[in-house]
Amino acid sequence: MSELIKLKHEFAKSSDFLVALGDKKRQNIIIALMNQKVILRGLQVTDLVEVTGLSRPAVSHHLKILKDVNLVDYRREGTKNFYYLTHENKEFKKMKLLSEHVMEVVKCNRQI
Amino acid sequence: MSELIKLKHEFAKSSDFLVALGDKKRQNIIIALMNQKVILRGLQVTDLVEVTGLSRPAVSHHLKILKDVNLVDYRREGTKNFYYLTHENKEFKKMKLLSEHVMEVVKCNRQI
DNA sequence: TTCAATAGTTTAAAAATATAAACCATAGAG
DNA sequence: CTCTATGGTTTATATTTTTAAACTATTGAA
């Protein structure tokens, strides 16, 4: 399989992730989840409502999107859900690889 | 300025680029632009219409979005516009840096 | 200078996405 | 068991994005 076909698939697979990450409201949620010092037990939906200024269903909706692309996960404690960023960084590793692969291909394909 | 605030800005600045890159139709345009062997004179809108199966205004629209985030550029020859991928890869370099920075922050912020 | 080719723009419609309101489900306290 | 807190889901609406059709502009050839 050619490099380009591989890259095409790599692109397609990263599509949902890139769109999820591109949204400014979701970026704010991500930043809020990063911004937890010392004891990282995660943030509840209501915490994120406060931080982001979005409504609860909106936060819930965006969290679902972020969860679907493996950017966040949550832990349930009683009736409370504590959301946190997934820490294996799989998706960001893929994102790094994608950018590297693109640059390799473009480097060989210089404009004359 | 804290690392996190910097990262927040880095995220925000990459927002349009990520969304532009996440769209599958635009990915197809990008792949088509990469898929030019030997003599790289660029592709015209009509070429891209054929390759992608989109209408001309749609291709034109997506090219504008890709151009706005510095992913493509074009060269005019008479009435023809030849589109090509920008070859400095500035945006992909930023994308690589962004993923690295996120991983650094998340690494320090481990879940207990 | 008129015609054909190329491609951008505007406008209107269609599709997708995001939001809020109302509702439902579950866990734990009393 | 009942009540409250938390938060997910459904539905209807609003907004945004995408698309196509029609129009316009520009270049070069006849």
From TrEMBL, chains A, B:
Gene3D superfamilies listed in its UniProt record: Winged helix-like DNA-binding domain superfamily/Winged helix DNA-binding domain
Assigned keywords, A-Z: DNA-binding, Transcription, Transcription regulation
SMART domains: HTH_ARSR
Nucleotidyltransferase keyword on record: no
Family annotation (InterPro entries): ArsR-like_HTH (IPR011991), HTH_ArsR_DNA-bd_dom (IPR001845), Metal_resp_trans_reg (IPR051011), WH-like_DNA-bd_sf (IPR036388), WH_DNA-bd_sf (IPR036390)
Domain of life of the native organism: Bacteria
Database matches in Pfam families: HTH_5 (PF01022)
Every HTH arsR-type domain range: 7-112
Protein name as catalogued: ArsR/SmtB family transcription factor
